[in-house]
Design goal:
The complex is a heterodimer of chains A (556) and B (681).
Chain A: H1 3-31, H2 39-49, H3 58-81, H4 98-109, H5 119-122, H6 125-155, H7 165-191, E1 201-204, E2 210-213, H8 219-227, H9 248-272, H10 276-303, H11 320-333, H12 348-359, H13 370-389, E3 395-396, E4 399-400, H14 403-427, H15 431-434, H16 441-456, H17 471-500, H18 517-532, H19 536-551
Antiparallel strand pairs in A: 1-2, 3-4
Helix pairs in contact in A: 1-7, 1-9, 1-11, 3-4, 3-6, 3-17, 4-17, 6-7, 6-8, 6-13, 6-17, 7-8, 8-9, 9-10, 9-11, 10-11, 10-12, 10-18, 11-12, 12-16, 12-19, 13-14, 13-18, 14-16, 14-17, 16-17, 16-19
Chain B: H1 9-21, H2 25-28, H3 32-54, H4 59-96, E1 102-105, E2 110-112, E3 121-125, E4 134-138, E5 140-144, H5 146-149, E6 155-158, E7 165-166, E8 171-172, E9 176-181, H6 189-198, H7 206-227, H8 229-235, H9 242-252, H10 255-274, E10 277-279, H11 282-289, E11 293-297, E12 303-314, H12 320-331, H13 337-348, H14 356-359, E13 361-364, E14 372-377, E15 380-386, H15 387-401, H16 405-423, E16 426-433, E17 436-447, H17 451-461, E18 464-468, H18 473-483, E19 487-489, H19 494-506, E20 511-515, H20 521-526, E21 529-533, H21 538-543, E22 546-548, H22 556-593, H23 611-635, H24 644-676
Parallel strand pairs in B: 11-18, 11-20, 18-19, 20-21, 21-22
Antiparallel strand pairs in B: 1-2, 1-3, 3-9, 4-7, 4-9, 5-6, 5-8, 10-22, 12-17, 13-14, 14-15, 15-16, 16-17
Helix pairs in contact in B: 1-4, 3-4, 3-9, 4-6, 4-9, 4-10, 4-23, 7-9, 9-22, 9-23, 10-22, 10-23, 11-22, 12-13, 15-16, 22-23, 22-24, 23-24
The chains are: A mainly alpha (556), B alpha+beta (681).
């Protein structure tokens, strides 16, 4: 670890924090329904879609989201299947196999962007642009919509509606995602990221070897890939590819984009509930967990391995130890899943933190919207336990946390361990699934565990040494992604509906203050204990035992 | 109500039996966590029997684990049985009063009390037991209610008014009353009280239900965590005995709070009963902890029931002694506490006590028409009364005699002094002698000692107090300021009380109040916590959700504290239970996987002797901690009015941090103990 490395980490944190208030304030205007600069276009979209933008009960809000997502999966599946017959396919790539097309469609609609395919060898430009990239925008917008709906649940009093899903999604795309992406894409092009529809270039290297250099509309996909915490790379090597991430500046832009909206959401939350301090408290809890994670990974990677020393295998020399460690923590803390280094090559403990980040439900900043609603689940549990300890029916922001709220929060929290642990348990004993595992011993276990944890948490990054493009993995990971996204969202919207209908209790001296360090510490404790303890056996058998073995000089 | 010690063998012995009879699956199913423990315990018992039959390995170890699993379930049952037992001990003394008595109907026929129906009219004479709950419709009697209140001083019960309710099982000491029965046998007040303290009628309260959902959810999460271990282990080439998996599972799920949850609830109700307050439902007790606004009647709660004379304020030209002398004479026959306080004050002005008959004076009593009282002594008339009544009296007399300007100035002065006294929170009484105004007696409302501190304490709890009084706003404001209440409602009518409660509730606040009269019934019913005084009417008792047997309105404060204590105890033990898991993982995980991943021995931070001793120590700790925490769950976590933040950091430090550290130490000690006596290798 070096001073320079830490300065880079602090610079990054400084930029993200500086963006929190301006972006949060801007999103507050967007989601409170203020008139914005694209009014006519917005109204035209509603006219075409046939919505009047009326307030929706949580059931209708959820139904709208589910129908929208189901149609998205269907459209993306069909597009992949028939891409061979469609234009913008200079490499004449054939239709995608059914199981892979299903997996990919689910993956992009659920904001996971798990990629069991090689981008430049599988997807036509049309599929990338019209299929994958469209979902990059709308899946991010859906996540933001759900979070806004949940926040409205806290902010509204005795209300029956949570807002309108179609309006929230439209405004998220139109006013938040698109403007930033248009500007950002131009910057990336300036930095050397390609944006063309040209066929792949055949080149002869200095050594005289023939090489195919993939091309495509890369820049337009790069911006939203990070800003929307999607993470699906244009190329297989993702952000380690020089065309996706050519310079130190683009690397910084990518990293800032991953956290920008998620961090600003805490401020949006504070503004919507009328007390920005509440947002800062939540961001502090996230920030503490983030910095600890970065410190561990940075230390573990800088330390390396007693057998070979600092390990650069799987890392880009351009980004070095700190650039790779920081990116790995950011991408798994948020629900992004873009990578600029191969996580499978991280040291045992260095790989454990990304896994842990995802197991906790990606609540350290987290996916756009998804991080906010995931964290609020833990807040509900923390408030419930702590509230009892001050001798009152627990309440948060004036809303009483009672049986229904606890029920919905627990339902949403149960889904992650069920999917992540249950599916891993099946995969590590089924011979068909085991044959995909390339490394023996605990590292092989970590590969499978990481895959299901990543899918369940809708992250999309991988311990890439697992050959996941098999019918078993395509199908089970697809199910994990669907469950991790939608089986969580439905109880969350139910929770939002239940909260919105409640009266607000005025604050008194007997009310637990939720903006101070005490609450932050409590929240972190609850996240670690409630979200992390159940994974302890799995972590012990994966990264921990691998670390202990390597320290003792044992390899597998 | 007799106090029973926590370790009274008369409670502990039956509780041991209760722990076994509670193994009935239908009763266990009420508690999800303990039910799950019972299920896996039965499973491991079956496996143990199979192993013994087939001669499997490690039977001694498995046997001990299974034994401690059974202890875990039994200890949970025991905790509940002890809590119920304490209630039962109280119920026993109540039941004695329920022995069947004979009732005399109106027509003189004698019937057993058990056959009485609602609406029957019975006659109860001195020395007889009142056969059932009812309302006095004729007569007045002194009644011994020691059976329910523990207070041996008799109370007066009379028809009409606010003291008409009588309770079955209490004894008439004097006179004869006619009672209309309001509760049939089996549903009387005492029956309900017995049911409540025994815990038989206990229904889960809202917060308890929510907590149960949380605990059930956590149990499910650990089902996933443990059920997946066999396949993880088989990937690593190892196998883990079912009994070890069960041991890990049972130690991880929140058994501590699961086992003590119902004991905490029963004990909370019990604590109220010890305070001589009966809650009609656990929901009401819980709501008490959430109270935001407390409505308190001024008289009897904030001030002493009676006002006292504190000063004589004469008009110009009259000395204080002259006024004191007249006031004393006017009050000689006045036996009200106010009247007596005037004679006491007069003594301080050197006026000596005088005898009515020696003065040859005749007393003029207070009437609703004249609103004055006084004496006629020879030719002299002295009157005292409300300022406006006296002024009216003087005014009409003066217009008859035609006295002039001097009288008008006196009237003006008396009116002004009267206003001053009102503003200061007092009640002015004007004194007149032979139509000459002498001045004003300042009757002061005496705010109870220490009440100001109690309100300050309530404020620190986050509770707003509102004083309800029939006084005019000026007087009310002065007393409110002196007593330190946050707000007041002056010239209050029952409708205004109801409106105030509704408007507070509309703001999302929970309101508590106490009342005794029939006109309080709507407000008592509307309030979230309505405490009816036992001396009150049947209507008030039915409308409230608590009854205070001592009829002491200040008890609302204790009721709020008990409600808070109940919630805090649950929260604290939940936190403790969850925090324990960290140490248990460090005990069991390395032990579990050591056979195929010896490296994981590094996680054995406690340095436990062997895998078997580690697992056994964890499960023993898990069972014993239930027993160790029974006293705390019965006593409750102490509430301090220090504000929510300070309270939380204190409880987090004790139960959160403590919950993390204690098991590390305890498991290590248990490990050393079982190794030294050689229970396992």
């Amino acid at each position: 670890m070096t001073l320079n490395g830490w300065l880079q980490i602090l610079l990054y944190c400084g930029i993200v924090i500086a963006l929190v208030r301006p972006l949060g304030g801007y999103m507050f205007r967007v989601f409170s329904g203020e008139r914005m600069f694209l009014g006519p276009i917005e109204r035209a979209i509603y006219a075409v879609a046939g919505t009047r933008g009326e307030d929706q009960h949580w059931t209708r809000y959820a139904a709208s989201l589910l129908i929208f997502s189901a149609l998205g999966v269907l459209a993306l599946y069909l597009l992949q299947r028939v891409q061979g017959a469609l234009p913008f396919n200079p490499q004449s790539l054939p239709g995608v196999a059914p199981d892979l097309a299903f997996n990919t469609a689910v993956s992009f609609v659920s904001n996971t962007n798990w990629q069991a395919y090689v981008g430049e060898g599988t997807m036509s430009y049309l599929t990338q642009m019209l299929g994958l990239n469209v979902q990059n925008f709308v899946s991010a917008a859906s996540g933001m919509a759900v979070a806004v709906a949940l926040i409205r649940g806290f902010a509204r009093r005795s209300a029956s509606g949570l807002g309108n899903f179609w309006v929230d999604v439209t405004r998220a795309v139109l006013y938040v995602l698109l403007p930033i992406c248009i500007v950002g894409t131009l910057v990336l092009v300036w930095q050397g990221v390609p944006q063309n529809l040209a066929p792949y270039t055949a080149a002869t290297t200095l050594e005289g070897v023939q090489q195919t250099i993939a091309q495509g509309p890369v820049a337009s996909q790069m911006m939203i890939k990070h800003l929307g915490t999607n993470g699906g790379g244009f190329f297989n090597a993702n952000a380690a590819h020089p065309f996706e991430n050519p310079t130190a500046l683009t690397n910084l832009i990518h990293m800032v984009c991953i956290f920008a909206i998620g961090a600003a959401f805490t401020n949006l939350f504070g503004r919507m509930v009328g007390d920005e301090r509440q947002g800062w408290a939540i961001l502090s809890a996230m920030g503490v967990m983030f910095l600890v994670g970065v410190a561990v990974v940075y230390w573990a990677e800088a330390q390396g391995n007693p057998l070979i020393g600092t390990a650069m295998e799987g890392k880009e020399a351009r980004f070095g130890i700190v650039g790779s460690a920081l990116f790995a923590v950011i991408t798994t803390a948020a629900s992004c899943g873009a990578v600029n280094a191969m996580h499978g090559s991280l040291s045992a403990l260095g790989g454990m933190i990304p896994m842990l980040n995802m197991m906790l439900g990606e609540v350290v900043v987290g996916g756009v919207g998804a991080g906010m609603y995931g964290l609020l689940l833990f807040v509900i549990v923390a408030i419930f336990i702590a509230g009892l300890m001050v001798g009152r029916t627990p309440e948060y922001l004036g809303k009483k946390v009672e049986g229904r709220e606890v029920k919905f929060a627990m339902l949403a929290l149960l889904i992650l361990p069920l999917v992540m642990l249950g599916m891993t348990a099946a995969a590590v004993v089924l011979p068909g699934a085991l044959s995909s595992v390339l490394n023996p011993g605990p590292h092989g276990f970590s590969e499978v565990l990481y895959a299901y944890v990543s899918a369940g948490a809708n992250n999309g990054s991988a311990f890439a040494s697992l050959s996941a493009n098999t019918p078993w993995y395509n199908l089970t990971l697809g199910i994990a992604m669907l469950a991790g996204r939608f089986a969580m969202i439905v109880p969350i919207l139910a929770l939002a509906g239940s909260l919105a209908g409640k009266k607000s209790v005025p604050v008194s001296d007997g009310t637990l203050p939720t903006h101070g360090p005490l609450f932050v510490a409590l929240l972190i404790g609850v996240i670690l204990v409630m979200g992390g303890l159940e994974f302890f056996p799995a972590i012990a058998l994966g990264p921990i035992v691998e670390h202990l073995a390597v320290m003792a000089g044992q390899t597998f | 109500m007799t106090q029973t010690s926590m370790f009274d063998p008369r409670i502990l012995m039956p509780a041991l039996g209760g722990a076994v009879t509670k193994l009935d699956p239908r009763r266990l199913a009420r508690n999800p966590v303990i039910f799950v423990v019972a299920v896996v315990t039965v499973l491991t018992t079956v496996l143990l029997v199979r192993d013994i039959a087939t001669g499997g390995a490690d039977i001694g170890f498995s046997f001990q684990i299974v034994l401690w699993l059974w202890f875990t379930v039994l200890f949970a049952n025991f905790a509940e049985a002890v809590a119920e037992g304490r209630g039962k001990a109280q119920a026993e003394s109540l039941k004695k009063t329920r022995t069947d008595t004979e009732a005399t109907l109106e027509n003189g026929r004698k019937v057993p009390s058990t056959s009485l129906k609602v609406g029957d009219v019975v006659i109860v004479e001195a020395g007889e037991i009142i056969p059932s709950d009812g309302e006095v419709i004729e007569g007045v009697a002194s009644v011994n209610e020691a059976a329910i209140t523990g207070e041996s001083a008799p109370v007066i019960r009379e028809s009409g008014g606010d003291r008409s309710a009588v309770t079955g099982g209490t004894q008439v000491l004097s006179d004869r009353i006619v009672v209309r029965i309001t509760a049939a046998a089996g549903s009387t007040f005492i029956d309900r009280m017995i049911g409540l303290v025994e815990g038989a009628q206990r229904q889960k309260t809202p917060n308890e239900i929510a907590l149960n959902i949380l605990l059930a959810g956590m149990t499910l999460i650990f089902v996933f965590a443990v059920a997946t271990i066999p396949s993880f282990a088989s990937y690593a080439g190892g196998q883990i005995p079912v009994v070890v998996l069960v041991a890990l599972f049972v130690t991880l799920i929140p058994t501590t709070i699961g086992a003590l949850l119902s004991a905490i609830g029963i004990a909370g109700m019990d604590r109220l009963v010890r305070f001589n307050v009966l809650a009609m439902s656990g929901r009401a007790v819980e709501a008490a902890g959430d109270i935001d606004t407390l409505l308190l009647d001024k008289t009897g709660t904030i001030t002493l029931g009676n006002r006292q004379a504190s000063e004589f304020r004469p008009v110009t030209g009259v000395t204080a002694e002259e006024l004191a002398d007249a006031a004393q004479l006017a009050s000689l026959a006045d036996e009200t506490p106010e009247g007596r306080s005037i004679t006491v004050l007069a003594k301080q002005y050197g006026i000596r006590a005088r005898d009515m008959s020696a003065l040859n004076a005749s007393f003029v009593p207070f009437t609703a028409q004249s609103r004055m009282s006084g004496v006629d002594m020879g030719g002299i008339q002295i009157r005292k009364g409300a300022v406006d009544a006296i002024l009216k009296h003087v005014g009409s007399a003066n217009s008859a005699t035609g006295r002039g300007r001097a009288a008008a100035a006196d009237m003006e002065q008396v009116r002004r002094i009267g206003e001053d006294v009102s503003k200061a929170g007092g009640t002015p009484l004007a004194v007149v002698r032979d139509n000459r105004l002498l001045g004003v007696i300042y009757l002061k409302d005496i705010v109870k000692g220490g009440i100001r501190e109690r309100f300050a304490e309530l404020r620190r709890m986050g509770i707003r107090t509102v004083m309800i009084t029939g006084d005019n706003p000026m007087t009310a404001a002065a007393i409110a300021a002196e007593a330190g209440v946050d707000d007041f409602l002056a010239e209050a009518t029952p409708e205004m009380k109801l409106d105030l409660i509704r408007s507070e509730q509309a703001k999302g606040k929970l309101v508590a109040m106490c009342g005794d009269g029939t006109n309080d019934a709507p407000a008592l019913a509307q309030a979230d916590v309505g405490v009816a005084m036992n001396t009150g009417t049947v209507a008030a008792r039915e409308a409230g959700n608590m009854v205070d047997l001592d009829s002491d309105p200040t008890k609302l404060i204790e009721i709020v504290e008990i409600g808070k204590q109940l919630l805090m105890t649950r929260g604290a033990l939940t936190t403790f239970s969850i925090a324990n898991d960290i140490a248990k993982y460090f005990a069991i995980i390395p032990a579990m996987f050591l056979a195929f991943y010896p490296q994981l021995g590094a996680l054995n931070v406690m340095g436990l002797h062997s895998p078997q001793s580690a697992i056994l120590s964890a499960i023993i700790f898990n069972a014993l901690v239930i027993v160790a925490l029974i006293p705390l769950s019965l006593r409750g976590v102490k509430y301090r009015a220090v504000g929510a933040g300070a309270l939380l950091s204190r409880n987090m430090a004790i139960y959160g941090l403590g919950g993390m550290i204690v098991p590390f130490v305890a498991i290590k000690l248990i490990d050393m103990a079982i190794i030294s006596i050689g229970l396992v290798q």
